[in-house]
Design goal:
The protein is of the alpha+beta class and about 210 residues long. It has a 5-stranded mixed barrel with strand order 1-2-3-5-4. The chain contains 9 helices and 5 strands. The protein is about 45% helix and about 20% strand. The chain is globular and about 55 Å long. The longest helix is centred in the C-terminal third of the chain and has 19 residues. Helix 2 packs antiparallel against helix 3. It folds into 2 domains: about 80 residues, OB fold (Dihydrolipoamide Acetyltransferase, E2P), CATH 2.40.50; about 120 residues, de novo design (two linked rop proteins) (Up-down Bundle), CATH 1.20.1440.
């Protein structure tokens, strides 16, 4: 047993016992993990505010490597991504990005690139004029990092509508700052998102589920 410190972003949570909370975390040091926040469901609990969804926090963990029951002993918010909470659509897209990361990332896979991509996407969502563009761009990058090639391995999307393939290629090339203000019509964004969803379901069996508040 030992203490470890890492930066993390909470992606999902569920009650554990009467007052604890079990969290799904994207961490900088340990990859995707679960951990228990003791007493986080109690009114005015110290850990509660720091472990709200889509805040980057510095946490202390007590436990063993590769354990699903490590305990969070302290947490301090380092980046609140406050702009996310100005828009219901931004929050919805943040949950979609979290779901994609969880679907294609094994537990305990240490990858700074993935952590930085999750963090950067939340930053872009917090100020984007068109948050529906961020999610497919995030998905394309996350798939590539995870060893999947959407354009090559899922040709049905390209054959069905060449415009969607062109859009995917464009979003994959754009830098973050340009992406935050990229203009894409809702129909094209929806069709690309649908194609990506179908592809992820094929490779991961990741069924779409409604985003729910933590």
């Amino acid at each position: 047993m030992r203490y470890e410190k890492t930066n993390c972003i909470a992606l999902d949570a569920s009650p554990s016992g009467e007052s604890d909370k079990t969290l799904l975390l994207c961490t900088q040091t340990f990859g995707k993990i679960t951990a228990v926040a003791p007493g986080a469901l109690k009114p005015a609990a110290r850990l509660s505010a720091s472990l709200e969804p889509f805040r980057e926090s510095r946490i202390s963990l007590w436990g063993r490597p590769h354990s699903f029951r490590n305990r969070i002993t302290s947490a301090v918010v380092e980046e609140p991504f406050a702009g996310l909470f100005d828009s219901g659509e931004r929050i919805r897209q943040a949950f979609e990005c979290a779901r994609i990361y969880a679907a294609v990332t094994p537990y305990f896979e240490t990858d700074d690139v993935k952590y930085n991509l999750v963090r950067r996407s939340l930053e872009l969502l917090s100020r984007s004029d068109n948050p529906r563009v961020i999610t497919p761009a995030f998905t394309l990058r996350m798939l590539k990092i995870s060893g999947y090639d959407f354009a090559r391995q899922y040709p049905r999307a390209r054959l069905a509508d060449r415009r969607i393939a062109v859009l995917a290629e464009r979003l994959a090339r754009l830098s973050g700052d340009d992406l935050a203000f990229e203009k894409v019509d809702d129909e094209s964004a929806s069709r690309l998102t649908f194609a990506l969803e179908a592809y992820i379901e094929d490779i991961c069996g990741a069924k779409r589920r409604p985003a729910a508040a933590l």
